[in-house]
């Protein structure tokens, strides 16, 4: 998962765990309360069973008393039924006894009940039937004592169960109160955590999205200088970086499109007027050169100036035609070092270069149009020498990389002004008193036709560097 997705997952997981803890505390308390209530119901059932046992024993004694009072055995069937009921309830009480104390009381009641039955059947009934009133009275007193023992054990056992009921009820109340407190505390913490998660989402998700939205709106409004300052090590930061790269690419594409439209307009203009202008210029040059043969003194100087300006006009027209002509790049392989040295030699011979020192370093091969690449190298060499001045230094360095060749022209001149760097390749822009402003524009067009480009930059300290990037020729 990405950084933001992982953090959101952890945040929501913590929130879910908090609510889960609250639910667990509530369910655990409910389970304990349910168990306590179940125990209470069990103890209440045991109390009722114990009290019903005591009632059965009293019924049993009542039938014994009626036998003594009536002096016959007429109540024996009723006594037998009461005895069976008492034994059944005694078994129920015994089944509900769980502690040693409870089992001891139940055992006392069982033993005493059986002794009471044996006393009744073996001593009291025979004495009644013999009309032995003294023995009957004595055994009846003993039976009453045994009934008191059973009643006391039943009361003790019932009190024990009632105390247990009180403890279970108190425990249930305590658990209920604690569960309520824990649940409220955890839910309060969950609410605070939810607020924190909401703030976190607002800062880590909503704010970057709003910044991206605002940036997209500015681009839609035409502001291609838009840059989103979102330095984050997650997908939003990477998206902002891609967004900034996109705006830079759009800005560059727009600049190229404007440049292309400008060159296309110049090309259409040049194609329309070049023939009409070249013919008069040729006639002017012909007459000027004819007059120069006969002219002397000041007139000869004036004719020379006319010739220079006419040639300058023709160079401008040729430069405009170069911008308008589509360039077909042949696949001819060229040695760049030989090309540079040839250009420098020719420029030196024609005295078109200044006295600046020039050195050539490195070598590489490229595929391209010899005449057009020679034109580019000529422009760049000439510009570097003029910028360096008579006592300056120019270095032409050739570097062969994996997929391209870089041909750098470094001079020791004053460097490039900000305006020159911005408008360097605009047609008719020049910083020279007698420049046409077409040399670098034509050179850039030729470089782009070869799949390359020209990149200018200022060197640290002093000087400038123009680097011609061209695709490397495969051997």
From TrEMBL:
Substrates-to-products reaction catalysed: ATP + protein L-histidine = ADP + protein N-phospho-L-histidine
Listed SMART domains: HAMP (SM00304), HATPase_c (SM00387), HisKA (SM00388)
Chain ranges passing through the membrane: none
Cellular component, GO annotation: membrane
Residues covered by the Histidine kinase domain: 272-474
Signal peptide limits: 1-25
Pfam families xref list: HAMP (PF00672), HATPase_c (PF02518), HisKA (PF00512)
Keyword Kinase applies: yes
GO MF, any single term: phosphorelay sensor kinase activity
Top EC class for this record: transferase
Presence of the UniProt keyword Manganese in the record: no
Principal subcellular localisation of the protein: membrane
Keyword terms, alphabetized: ATP-binding, Kinase, Nucleotide-binding, Phosphoprotein, Signal, Transferase, Two-component regulatory system
Domain HAMP positions: 203-255
Localisation: Membrane
Listed EC numbers: 2.7.13.3
Protein origin, superkingdom: Bacteria
Name this polypeptide is given: histidine kinase
């Amino acid at each position: 998962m990405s950084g933001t997705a992982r953090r959101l997952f952890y945040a929501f997981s913590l929130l879910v765990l908090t609510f889960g803890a609250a639910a667990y505390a509530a369910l655990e308390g409910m389970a304990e309360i349910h168990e306590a209530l179940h125990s209470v119901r069990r103890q209440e059932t045991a109390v009722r069973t114990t009290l019903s046992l005591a009632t059965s024993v009293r019924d049993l004694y009542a039938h014994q008393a009626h036998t003594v009072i009536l002096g016959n055995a007429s109540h024996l069937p009723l006594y037998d039924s009461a005895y069976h009921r008492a034994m059944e309830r005694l078994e129920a009480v015994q089944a509900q006894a769980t502690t040693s104390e409870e089992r001891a009381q139940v055992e006392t009641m069982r033993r005493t009940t059986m002794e009471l039955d044996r006393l009744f059947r073996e001593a009291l009934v025979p004495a009644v039937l013999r009309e032995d009133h003294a023995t009957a009275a004595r055994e009846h007193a003993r039976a009453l004592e045994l009934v008191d023992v059973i009643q006391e054990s039943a009361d003790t056992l019932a009190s024990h169960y009632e105390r247990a009921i009180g403890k279970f009820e108190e425990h249930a109340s305590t658990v209920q109160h604690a569960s309520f407190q824990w649940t409220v505390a955890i839910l309060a913490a969950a609410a605070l955590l939810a607020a924190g998660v909401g703030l976190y989402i607002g800062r880590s998700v909503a704010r970057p999205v709003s910044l991206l939205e605002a940036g997209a709106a500015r681009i839609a409004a035409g502001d291609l200088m838009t840059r989103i300052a979102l330095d984050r090590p997650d997908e939003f930061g990477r998206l902002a970086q891609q967004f900034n790269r996109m705006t830079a690419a759009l800005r560059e594409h727009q600049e190229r499109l404007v440049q292309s439209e400008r060159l296309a307009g110049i090309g259409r203009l040049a194609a329309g007027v070049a023939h009409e202008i070249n013919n008069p210029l040729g006639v002017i040059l012909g007459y000027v050169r004819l007059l120069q043969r006969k002219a002397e003194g000041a007139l000869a100087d004036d004719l020379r100036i006319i010739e220079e300006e006419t040639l300058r006009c023709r160079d401008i027209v040729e430069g405009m035609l170069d911008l308008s002509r589509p360039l077909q790049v042949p696949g001819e392989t060229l040695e760049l070092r030989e090309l540079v040295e040839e250009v420098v030699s020719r420029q030196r011979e024609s005295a078109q270069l200044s006295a600046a020192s020039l050195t050539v370093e490195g070598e590489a091969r490229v595929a391209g149009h010899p005449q057009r690449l020679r034109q580019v190298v000529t422009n760049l060499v000439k510009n570097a020498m003029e910028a360096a001045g008579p006592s300056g230094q120019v270095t032409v360095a050739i570097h062969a990389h994996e997929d391209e060749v870089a041909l750098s022209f470094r001079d020791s001149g004053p460097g490039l002004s900000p305006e020159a760097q911005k408008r360097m390749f605009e047609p008719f822009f020049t910083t020279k008193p007698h420049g046409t402003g077409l040399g670098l524009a034509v050179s850039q067009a030729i470089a782009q036709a070869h799949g390359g480009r020209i990149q200018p930059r200022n060197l640290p300290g002093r000087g400038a560097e123009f680097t011609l990037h061209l695709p490397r020729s495969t051997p």
